[in-house]
């Protein structure tokens, strides 16, 4: 399967990201999605079935060119180290962004403070 | 004794249809509870309207009655009615005032209504003249401020204590409630009678040739006396007018000052909000920058974790490789021994003898070491790991989460400050809006000169009165001299009789004057004594021993050592004011219900308890209008016990619909 040149996020993740941007002063949705990706990578890597989720997540939300991801080479380097045989890093990044967003949403909806969510 | 027995309010203020309050017939206290804006003061206004047909607002201006017709009732075209049931000297009276809406009118002005009033005594409607007489006798409007009072009367009393103010209005009111006007009117009547006798004396003196000339002079002086007295009366009228005008200007100035103060406070608030907002914007930008890199902090953690795993693996591989190197060396030595010595020999290291069995053992060891000889794949993995660790170590990711958290807390704190300040500003703006609309900021430029002009005018009038009075005295002395001259020169029985009558009247007048002075003095002493008794029973400061009354009925607090207490707190001024009111009621010739609206606001809890306890002594029927925080309901119940005859609650259903729950 070929890798992506555009990252299309799910509609729910997009809606939630818009809200988060407003509430917590992120510069834009992409900045938040990039945080969500790192959050998922750090906390939920073992829970993620990349192939399955890539197929499951809709693509009706925001659409970004992969060039708009900051320091993508660093991210790909890290992915290459931690995900065996990572042939399609941008597909992985899309899944991580959406998965991370949903997990953050779950915690906020459960009443957790944002400052505890961003804790390392 | 007048007592309210029932109040029916129909479409008045926030009350729709008919709301009823039944007042208990036993002596004691009734508390009407209601939060601000639900219609407590409206009850007071409804009673005032029923009794005197008008409502004076906080600015001493008569409000159009139509403005009190319930807003929704106006929409529905309904009438407004207040019915006050009373008992006076054991007879039942029902006073009804209503506004009947004229057909096809908007209902927005007084002209849109027909005003009706009638009084029923037992089962009969009384004549308008009897109705007016009853109202003037039972509870005259002039003394209403001491029966139906609110914070305003306490404020007026507070002003009474400031010597620089002209307090004739409240002083007159105090004298009204004490029944002094009737004495003063009587004295004025005696003055008229005396004048008639004086004129009669002059008239008969004119008839006698020997006294004719002197009598003519006397008549001239009498005319002058009349003119001077008229001039004093006119000046007094002018003073009253100027005092009223000055009061209006003072009110406007006060409002302007208050308005200015509010405006200043609002501006300070806005400046503070602006600074906070600027700070907030800076902090938000700072957090935004930090959030740009938040992902890196988490990615850094991922890298750290991966790095730690790889370093651990590398360490494990390093140990394996080290073991392999050692085994390789042993393998080489043993291989050398085995290859050089086919039979018994000596060890090349320790020179011990090696027999064939030992040699066989060494051969077996060599075979086992063969299996763990250097594994190139481990070496390769190790090298690869080294390269990967190197790469990961060179990936720089900063952790800025601590800074983000700190700044988020600061943002929250600033946002809270802004909310508090905006709320404060909102409250100030609301309070400023409540000040009369004429209190424009720039009107002070016109008000101050007017204030100074009126002050100077009053001072001139006072001087004019003093001069006129001095002239009256001097004129009187001249008249007396001439009268003596006439008496000396006359031999006329008519003149003698007229003189005797005039002298008798003069003596009666003088006696009455002295009696009034004595009565006033006694009354003041009684008021002072009763106010002191009340005050010392409610005041918590045991060093406050006495209240001392002054000429204008102001009361000073005296300590045990006789020192006047300067700069009393506003709370204590209220306590003193209530003490005066209690004393006035005790000494007043008429008694009736006392209604107190929000009069506990500035009084601390200890004094509240004491004043609550003393309420039944103020009058036979005391009605208190209060909001729940103003007086603790449980305290009121505990303190008043059986004397708390009834509690009534006003509940607001909507802005134009409050109901009375009995």
Largest sheet composition of chain A: 2 strands, antiparallel
Average residue pLDDT of chain A: 93
Number of helical elements of chain A: 6
| Percent of sequence in beta strands of chain B | 15-25%
What share of residues of chain A is helical? 55-70%
Task: Map the helices and strands.
The complex is a heterodimer of chains A (120) and B (662).
Chain A: E1 6-8, H1 11-24, H2 29-44, H3 50-56, E2 63-65, H4 72-82, H5 89-109, H6 114-117
Helix pairs in contact in A: 2-5
Chain B: E1 2-12, E2 15-22, E3 28-33, H1 40-52, H2 71-76, E4 80-88, E5 91-101, E6 113-121, E7 124-125, H3 128-138, E8 148-150, H4 151-160, H5 168-177, H6 180-207, H7 212-292, H8 294-340, E9 345-346, E10 353-354, H9 356-371, H10 376-393, H11 401-433, H12 444-489, H13 493-538, E11 544-549, E12 555-559, H14 570-587, E13 594-597, H15 605-618, E14 621-626, H16 633-640, E15 644-654, E16 657-661
Give structural notes.
- The complex is a heterodimer of chains A (120) and B (662).
- In chain A, 61% of the residues lie in helices and 5% in strands.
- Chain A is built from 6 helices and 2 strands.
- In chain A, strands 1-2 form a two-stranded antiparallel sheet.
- Chain B is an alpha/beta fold and 662 residues long.
- In chain B, 61% of the residues lie in helices and 15% in strands.
- In chain B, the strands form 4 sheets. A 6-stranded antiparallel beta sheet of chain B has the order 2-1-4-5-6-7.
- The chains are: A mainly alpha (120), B alpha/beta (662).
Give me a quick take on this structure.
The complex is a heterodimer of chains A (120) and B (662). Chain A contains 6 helices and 2 strands, in the order E-H-H-H-E-H-H-H. Chain A has helices spanning 11-24, 29-44, 50-56, 72-82, 89-109, 114-117, and strands spanning 6-8, 63-65.
């Amino acid at each position: 399967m070929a890798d992506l040149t555009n990252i299309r996020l799910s509609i729910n993740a997009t809606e939630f990201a818009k809200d988060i941007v407003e509430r917590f002063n992120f510069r834009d949705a992409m900045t938040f999605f990039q945080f969500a990706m790192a959050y998922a990578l750090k906390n939920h890597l073992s829970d993620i079935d990349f192939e399955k989720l890539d197929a499951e997540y809709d693509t009706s939300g925001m659409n970004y060119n992969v060039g708009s991801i900051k320091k993508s080479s660093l991210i790909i380097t890290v992915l290459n180290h931690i995900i065996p045989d990572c042939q399609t890093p941008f597909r992985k990044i899309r899944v991580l962004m959406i998965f991370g967003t949903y997990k953050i949403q779950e915690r906020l909806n459960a009443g957790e403070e944002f400052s505890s969510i961003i804790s390392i | 004794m007048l007592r309210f027995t029932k109040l029916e309010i129909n479409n008045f203020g926030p009350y729709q249809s008919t709301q009823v309050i039944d007042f208990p017939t036993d002596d004691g206290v009734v508390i009407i509870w209601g939060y601000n804006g639900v219609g407590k003061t409206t009850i007071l206004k409804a009673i005032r309207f029923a009794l005197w047909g008008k409502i004076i607002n906080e600015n001493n201006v008569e409000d159009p009655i139509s403005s009190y017709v319930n807003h929704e009732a106006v929409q529905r075209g309904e009438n407004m009615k207040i019915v006050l049931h009373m008992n006076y000297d054991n007879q039942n009276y029902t006073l009804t005032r209503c506004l009947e809406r004229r057909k096809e009118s908007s209902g927005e002005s007084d002209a849109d209504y027909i005003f009706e009033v009638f009084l029923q005594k037992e089962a009969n409607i009384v004549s308008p003249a009897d109705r007016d007489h009853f109202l003037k006798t039972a509870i005259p409007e002039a003394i209403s401020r001491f029966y139906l009072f609110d914070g305003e009367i306490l404020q007026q009393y507070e002003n009474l204590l400031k010597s620089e103010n002209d307090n004739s209005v409240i002083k007159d009111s105090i004298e009204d409630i004490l029944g002094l006007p009737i004495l003063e009117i009587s004295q004025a009547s005696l003055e008229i009678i005396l004048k008639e006798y004086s004129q009669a004396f002059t008239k008969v003196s004119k008839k006698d040739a020997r006294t004719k000339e002197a009598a003519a002079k006397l008549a001239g002086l009498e005319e002058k006396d009349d003119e001077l007295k008229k001039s004093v009366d006119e000046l007094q009228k002018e003073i009253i007018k100027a005092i009223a005008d000055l009061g209006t200007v003072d009110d406007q100035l006060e409002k302007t000052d208050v308005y200015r103060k509010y405006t200043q406070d609002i501006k300070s608030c806005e400046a503070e909000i602006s600074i906070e907002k600027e700070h907030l914007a800076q902090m938000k930008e700072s957090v935004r920058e930090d959030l740009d890199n938040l992902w890196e902090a988490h990615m850094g953690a991922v890298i750290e974790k991966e790095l730690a795993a790889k370093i651990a693996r590398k360490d494990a591989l390093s140990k394996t490789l080290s073991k392999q190197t050692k085994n390789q060396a042993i393998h080489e030595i043993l291989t050398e021994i085995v290859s050089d010595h086919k039979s018994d020999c000596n060890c090349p290291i320790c020179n011990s003898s090696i027999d064939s069995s030992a040699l066989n053992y060494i051969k077996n060891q060599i075979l086992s070491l063969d299996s763990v000889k250097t594994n190139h794949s481990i070496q390769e993995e190790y090298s690869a790991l080294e390269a990967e660790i190197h790469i990961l170590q060179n990936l720089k990711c900063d952790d800025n989460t601590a800074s983000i958290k700190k700044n988020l807390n600061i943002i929250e704190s600033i946002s809270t400050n802004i909310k508090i300040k905006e709320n404060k500003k909102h409250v100030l703006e609301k309070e400023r809006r409540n000040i009369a609309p004429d209190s424009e900021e720039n009107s002070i430029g016109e008000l101050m000169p007017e204030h100074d002009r009126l002050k100077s005018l009053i001072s001139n009038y006072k001087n004019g009165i003093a001069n006129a009075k001095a002239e009256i005295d001097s004129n009187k002395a001249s008249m007396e001299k001439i009268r003596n001259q006439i008496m000396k020169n006359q031999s006329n029985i008519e003149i003698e009789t007229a003189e005797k009558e005039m002298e008798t009247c003069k003596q009666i007048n003088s006696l009455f004057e002295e009696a009034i002075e004595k009565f006033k003095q006694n009354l003041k002493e009684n008021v002072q004594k009763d106010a002191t008794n009340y005050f010392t029973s409610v005041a918590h400061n045991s060093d406050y021993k006495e209240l001392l009354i002054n000429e204008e009925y102001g009361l000073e607090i005296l300590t045990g050592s006789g020192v006047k207490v300067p700069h009393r707190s506003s709370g204590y001024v209220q306590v003193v004011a209530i003490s005066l009111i209690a004393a006035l009621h005790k000494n007043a010739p008429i008694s009736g219900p006392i209604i107190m609206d929000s009069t506990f606001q500035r009084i601390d809890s200890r004094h509240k308890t004491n004043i609550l306890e003393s309420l039944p002594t103020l009058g036979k029927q005391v009605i208190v209008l209060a909001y729940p925080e103003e007086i603790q309901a449980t305290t009121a119940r505990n303190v008043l016990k059986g004397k708390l005859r009834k509690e009534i609650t006003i509940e607001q259903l909507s802005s134009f619909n409050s109901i009375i729950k009995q």
